[in-house]
Design goal:
Layout lengths: L7 E2 L3 H22 L4 E7 L3 H16 L3 E7 L5 H12 L6 E4 L9 H6 L12 H9 L7 H12 L8 E5 L6 H10 L3 E5 L6 H5 L4 E4 L17 E4 L12 H5 L4 E2 L6 H22 L2
Parallel strand pairs: 1-9, 2-3, 2-4, 5-6, 5-7, 7-8, 8-9
Helix pairs in contact: 1-10, 5-7, 6-7, 6-10
Amino acid sequence: MTSDTTARPMIGTDLAADMVAQAAVRAKKLQDETGVQPCLATVLVGDDPASATYVRMKQNRSKKAGIGSVSVVLPAETTTDELVAELTRLSNDPTVHGILLQHPVPEQIDERAAFEAIAPAKDVDGVTMHSFAAMAFGEPGFRSCTPGGILRLLQAYDVPLSGAHAVVIGRSPILGKPAGMLLLASNATVTYTHSRTQDLPALVRQADIVVAAVGKPNFVRGEWLKPGAVVIDAGYNEGNVGDVHAEEVARVASLLTPVPGGVGPMTIALLLEQTVDAAEAQTANR
């Protein structure tokens, strides 16, 4: 991988728009042939403004793709049991094909217990242990949407994955860990790093591909990178700032995802694509 003076941006917007357009064609075909409109249920606990904005954005994109949406908003003081009961109800509702629990949830809720209440067949956000196992073992199943979107972006930009050394910064169960698993399934050599990692810059400097998913603005610096590295900024912090210092990194990397307009659109596009996948599968199995 060779270095340019300025990294070429890996734009997710156009690719995501194509994915949504293709999902819309499939959704219309399913509805025309069976009378079934794919339906995504979004569940929001509390009134966090950023989360509410994300949910509205996903609902608007769903509408553009011909996907119906059901919105469930629960009070901030909702208990784990109450949330699990609601997710179980949606899992048993034959008119709902996909379920998205907006995260993070309030601190009193056991988030893992909530995720596991989502039926695997409707886990279109790829957050259950079933979905993670499918990603880890290379079996059919839903991908975590941000990692899955990252893989599609890397493929679209013809980034060689087989034999490449990928360093993933962050180990969250819905971003860092599945991103590493999907890269491993593509025959990359994967190093996971996290808050306890010693001499992080030295490890990052070995990477052909860097996935920054740490949740800290401007965390990854240009001097950490080897020239020509491909950098995926999966972070989104206040003020449209990612997890990498974009100005510094752009001077060293060959490819860099912008924030916004890089990974974010791919996440939503994959969510909608997988909702149509789920609707087709459930309709075929009825």
